[in-house]
Amino acid sequence: MKKFLPWLMVAVMAAWAVASLRPVRETGFHIAEFGQLPVLLNGRIQPFDSVARNCLLQIRDKQTAPIKLHFSVFDPAKRGQLMPAREWLLELMMKPDLADTRKVFRVDNPELVDLLKLPDKDPELGEDGKHYSFDQLHPQLKALGEQYERIARIEQAHRTPFEKQVVKLQNAVMLYQRLKVTLAPPTAEDFAAELATYQASLPAGLAALRAQQEGKPHDAAAFKEVASQFRKFNNMADYAYPLVVPPPNVAGRRDAWESAGTNLMQTLQGGQISPAVLAYAKMFSTYRQDKPAEFNSALRDYQQFLRTAFVPEVSKGQWEFRFNDFDFFYKAMTLYVLAFILACISWFNASEWLRRSGFYLGLLALALNTAGIAFRMMLEGRPPVTNLYSSAVFIGWGAAVLGLVLERIYRDGLGCAVAGLAGFATLIIAHHLSTTGDTMEMMRAVLDSNFWLATHVVTITIGYCGCFVAGLLGIFYILRGTFTRSLTPERARTLGRMVYGIICFATFFSFIGTVLGGIWADQSWGRFWGWDPKENGALLIVLWCAAILHSRWGGLVRERGLMNMAIIGNIITSFSWFGVNMLGVGLHSYGFMDSAFLWLVLFIASQVAFIILGLLPLKYWRSHNPATPATPPSAPPLRPSPAVA
């Protein structure tokens, strides 16, 4: 029976993953279909669904918003219910008065809470001391803006936690207000009717405007009406976030999208209102009037209009919506955790079916991870290493591949544990990186080359994978040796062979990637090497890998020393990968993130702690048997040298 349990477990988890592929069935407003509509933002076509997710992540650090306006003890069943990001965005654009009552703004700094005079924690009213509505923030927005202007003159590295929170909240409020004016003025009630009235009065209004400019008698009422509309449309044109109106001439630039406000402003110069603006206005009015049938009809008409000339854009929106909805990386992260847990349990009770279950779940997680990366590559048209987010996903994928290959060879659960832990950790890192905004943003100029992304960046990133896998193996060696009796001399030698092979692998790819980077630098910047901090970091990885290999070949270290050196490699690799990119130094700097810096410091501190454990005398290791050497050399040293046990 036990031999079928691994397959049964995999079948259940595969069914759980595939269940997300079922089409969304909506009985009321077709919000999912609305979420697939294409817009232009950050230089690329994306669906409303992506706009909603990325914006809500920046505002609330989550991709969902609370449904209930005020949680009540009289309605406990409604506590904690959430709405998808696309529904929240639709409500914000079409029912801003209702959206303003949603507690979506995260404010967890006590000083900032006091400054904005926000209510204390009150679970009965849904006050958690962390999330507040726009209505609650609105009375103190002036005070927030004054603090923001003061802090803007302070260097980022010198800001206090309070000042950093002020900047983050101010940016969130500005983003929120920009989203409000995407489709219509915030004060509009029946925008479709208002546009119809505006179109009817436009000829008289334009005549009055021209007469007023020429100093001639004019119709004051018509002039007042057009001036009022001008202010509303100008506000939309200045602040709208995504560009929702496709270009009228598809034979020209397909990326010449514009905001609804810009299109309406052009009517004052004789332009025509775009069918997209009229369609959105009808959707706006029917949504506010709670008429789902009319809303869905307007949505279908607009989809039909887009399919006449904007098929690639519609297809892009639909595919990216499916990518978001399936959530490959979340599912892979869940399976990586299960694989790691099963592999660890198998060490203690020596259960083969648990090890096999972990291995098969690791393969399923890797398949989902691979599909997610391939899907992103298709959507971006780029290799899988365009920014820190994608590099985190790719490094986790590479580490999982190496771990599962080791598991296939040695079949002791260790490779599976490495794959599960590395895959889970890097996907968690990627999730936190996604809170800064669009993860499929346009390429920075320094990276805008598909050829070099596919050669230099991919190659050197594979080298990162190897270094991290070697370091993880070293950590498992030290933990098992220090706290358990499972690290037998044979297993110690096996781990030594694993780490040695992985270090050879990492050295090769890191060296080739560094040379390719120099060639790219020569073509882009006119010099092969300029001692840029990123270049120095890459060189450090190569030199440290070479030092590990020479120490091993020369007999300077045995298994335990090899493991400690591999863990030091984790520190060097993390600094080269993250430290340089995010600390605002050099040509490869892609933006400072305080939270990333903190986690980098904590990671380095954890590696130092493992190294200290690894340096403890053997008598403190539970696996050490004084009668038998714990780590006998796997091969005689090449020259006489004191071995570091």
Structural overview:
With 645 residues, the chain is mainly alpha-helical. The chain folds into four domains: 50-180, no CATH class; 191-319, no CATH class; 327-441; 443-454 and 476-645, no CATH class. 64% of the residues lie in helices and 3% in strands. The strands form three sheets. Strands 1-2 form a two-stranded antiparallel sheet. The longest helix is centred in the C-terminal third of the chain and has 37 residues, at 489-525. The radius of gyration is 29 Å and the shape is elongated. The two termini are 45 Å apart.
Task: Outline the fold blueprint.
Elements: H1 5-18, H2 31-35, E1 38-41, E2 44-47, H3 48-60, E3 64-66, E4 82-84, H4 85-94, H5 96-99, E5 103-106, H6 110-115, E6 131-133, H7 134-137, H8 141-151, H9 161-180, H10 191-213, H11 220-239, H12 260-266, H13 275-288, H14 292-309, H15 311-326, H16 328-349, H17 352-380, H18 388-410, H19 414-433, H20 450-483, H21 489-525, H22 533-553, H23 559-582, H24 594-614
Antiparallel strand pairs: 1-2, 3-4, 5-6
Helix content: 55-70%
| Cα-atom radius of gyration | 29 Å
SSE succession: HHEEHEEHHEHEHHHHHHHHHHHHHHHHHH
Could you state the oligomeric state of the chains shown? single chain
Name the structural class: mainly alpha
Output the strand order for the largest sheet. Answer: 1-2
Morphology: elongated
Low-pLDDT stretches: 69-79, 630-645
- Strand-residue proportion: under 5%
Terminal-residue CA separation: 45 Å
Q: Based on DSSP secondary structure assignment, what is the total number of beta strands?
A: 6
Overall pLDDT metric: 87
Number of domains: 4
Biggest sheet, in brief?
2 strands, antiparallel
